[in-house]
Amino acid sequence: MADLPKADELFKSINYTPPSTGWMDTPVDFSPGNWCYPAKVDKLEYLGLPNPRVWNPEDVDWKLPENWQDIVHEGFKERLDKYRSLKVFMDVCVRCGACADKCHFFIGSGDPKNMPVLRAELMRSVYRKDFTMAGKILTTLTGSRVMTEDVLKEWFIYFYQCTECRRCSLFCPYGIDTAEITMMARELLTLCGVNINWIMEPAANCNRTGNHLGIQPHAFKDIVEFMVDDIEEVTGKRINVPINEKGHEVLFITPSGDVFADPGIYTFMGYLMLFDHIGLDYTLSTYASEGGNFGLFTSADMMKKINGKMYAEAKRLGSKWILGGECGHMWRVINQYMDTMNGPADFLQVPKSPITGTVFESAAQTKMVHITEFTADLMKHDKLNLDPTRNDHIRATFHDSCNPARAMGLLDEPRYVLNNVLKNFHEMPEQTIREQTFCCAGGSGLNTDEIMEIRMRGGLPRGNALKSVQEEHDVNMMACICAIDRATLIPLSNYWAPGVDVCGVHELVGNALILDGEKERETDLRLEPLPGKEG
Amino acid sequence: MNALYSLVLVFALVLLALFGVETAHMAKLFGTVLPVVAVAVFLVGFAYRMIKWAKSPVPFCIPTTGGQQKSLDFIHHNKFDNPVTTGQTFIRMVLEICCFRSLFRNTTVGLKDGRVTYASAKWLWLFSLLFHYSFLLIVIRHMRLFFEPIPAVIGFVEMLDGIMQIGTPRMYMSDVLIMVGVTFLLARRLWDAKLRYISLVTDYFPLLLIISIALSGIYMRFIAHVDVVAIKQLTMGIVTFHPVIPANVDVSFYVHIFLVCTLLIYFPFSKLMHAGGVFLSPTRNLPNNSRIKHHENPWNDPNIKPHSYEAYEDDFREPMIEAGLPVEKDA
Q1: pLDDT tens-digit map of B82-95
Q2: Complex ipTM
Q3: Most C-beta atoms within 10 A of its C-beta, which of A175, A388, A404, B245?
Q4: Which of B60, B81, B113 to mutate to test the interface with A (most CBs of A within 10 A)?
Q5: A245 touches chain B (CB under 8 A)
């Protein structure tokens, strides 16, 4: 982050006045920092994706396949026939501009091509030329243009500057969803071998090792052991964590970010403590050790392939239902795609909490329950022994992750859980939470460091909202239910609201849980002393 | 520039009608033939576009959710922003189509004192609503020209529309409001630099066309004082397929009807099809019940299978055994 401008300098550089040249005539800046690194050859080869080669977005020659224009045209046509969303969204936009200032990347950059309407026009202009009569004849009058190499390069820049967060869709009078358009554009780019490594490498890892970080099964077990050690250090209690074991009632799947990276690991410890506390009959799996689906950012086929592991593993292990951890994209895929792509999972049962007896009718088809739904139900039934004062040093706010918020509607469950485990909870301004939540600007495979300035610009709305609760209520912790958030919100808050830390909801649950036979706690899960217990 | 092109285009249309009727004496073409063609193009074109959209499947259930999902009993479910049943989804669509629900949320962003600010911006919602409802009222009022006897409901709408009883002939509120609405939409497009930047000729053209239709209508009523009886003779002639061209119809009528015909013909090929498309938007017209009910993807490829557990274990068997993890096959 060496060449990042200071936060206030970056803020001052934002200018919402568009350039004097029309958008079709405004060249794109290809200097480093404006794009993510291209996918490595071996990752594309492993996944069997087209045109693996070494290339650099800075170069003039992107080494595209000779017939790339035909590939794009045919791919476009195929997708118009397969998705009504794409067809309708290409046709019905009236450019009313309601979406224009809803995108976090636009708010932080002022770049008009980051207005959702214009991002989609990058694709619509080609659609009009290729697929509408008027666009073929009256080129400039209808805003259509020929698909040239420059247009493709522009697509690469701007469709990898969209986190598919769907905030614009919420405000669109026709529900035009830029995420859908971005997904299609990325599929077309992938057909030509124009894609980024931070998506392809995790996708390849998910396929081979089961998780995006490439953690192999024995290493996975080691990591879990480390966390069990840490739990023992904090609570004095050694807990048992089944892995890859058959015949347990519940299969638990969480994003691998929770297993690997700080602060996700504390959330993971929270899950494990909760399961021990209630005596849940569960197992983890190393084969299905990733909830986050990097296929979602690649193509529908890749999404299906990667996601298929969850059901396959539940079947192999003979589980009755699946419990899912705190993850954003994972829940978009589970809620909106999973049963359609990979189901119906008739070998599973409608989830029923073995502790409270609650039947989760809202998950009757997918047989997958979100951990905050599960925990909220436990709390409602008073099944947890909690000491919320252990979180008294935490003054928390909650960041709604885009996918659970706008592609599911999981808003109150995490809040219910939080309010049961801590006293100091403060909401950020209403235009920035719940369905209007702002993205962490690193979603959809963009949490990579080479575009840090773009991420910080996109993170402005979230950072700003966070700063306001920090100043008003002394908030020092932002809880969230997404592993990508737990990775991306840390640089974001360091930049825009220094002093605020990031955690998962179940980290705070873990702090508050009173395990049977535990010792008196002196630290929280981060091994930081609890107030009043210091030395 | 795009606005100017559109303006020139609309002027050209007006002139075309003026000369066509006054100089070239093609009243029959402008008064009867063209309207029939225009209505046919509109109906066939509209249906064609709708069918074309409907032919593409909706493989996945992808509603944009705007509120709390249906989950546990003690958590309040937001039924109309996050519907799970057909009935709830229907109400969501009614709110969307009749009340412009999503646009109602609109906010505007500003930068002030080192902060991003959000202000409510319901202007677009308000003026769009004014515009669309005035348009609807005007269309209903005009239906009196195509019915004999005139259905009571049309007379009632007309009575309500002129209830303020201002001037002679009585002023219709819808005439005023449509001009207010459409002028706002145009002014906003010209004024806001962001919007000007994204606006195409095809964004200005329909606005200017509708303005000119409204103005020509107002001109006919208040300045030219056209012979309504003669016009009704003409319109009834079209409806009954016995076209007549009455003698004393003012040329402004032909300008008006020509512009309307242009709008009807232009409609199915343009963004105006948002009127039909909004019904087919998969992010709005689907319930959020994909975790509860099965949705079928007609092109779901059964050959796409996950990397199998067997292949995974083959890859990692030795270290798994060493770590004490259960395996299916011994080494």
Answers
A1: 999 999 999 999 99
A2: 0.93
A3: A404
A4: B60
A5: yes
Question: Which residues 210-229 on chain A approach chain B with CB closer than 8 angstroms?
Answer: 210, 216-218, 221-222
pLDDT at A535: 55
Sole residue written with tokens 């992750």: A401
Residue A109: HSE in the Cβ half-sphere, 13 Å Cα cutoff: 25
CA atoms within 13 A on the CB side of A88: 28
- Counting residues of chain B whose pLDDT is more than 70, the rounded percentage is 100
CB A298 within 8 A of CB A336: no
Closest by Cβ to A244, choosing from B61, B78, B326: B326
Is residue B75 less than 8 Å (CB to CB) from chain A?
Answer: yes
Alpha-carbon distance of A492 to A189, in angstroms, equals 29
Q: Is B185 left (phi over 0), alpha (psi -120 to 50) or beta?
A: alpha
What residues form DSSP beta bridges with B234?
none
In whole angstroms, what is the distance from residue B225 CA to residue B250 CA?
9
Counting Cα atoms < 13 Å in the Cβ hemisphere of A469 gives 26
Spatial distance between the Cα atoms of A484 and B190, rounded to a whole number of angstroms: 41
Structure confidence at residue A1 (pLDDT): 45
Q: Kindly state whether A137 is in contact with chain B, defined as any CB-CB distance less than 8 angstroms.
A: no
Question: A55 CB near a chain B CB, below 8 Å?
Answer: no
Which residues of chain B are within 8 Å of residue A214 when distances are taken between CB atoms? none
Could you read off the pLDDT of B257-304 as tens digits, one per residue? Answer: 999 999 999 999 999 999 999 999 999 999 999 999 999 999 999 999
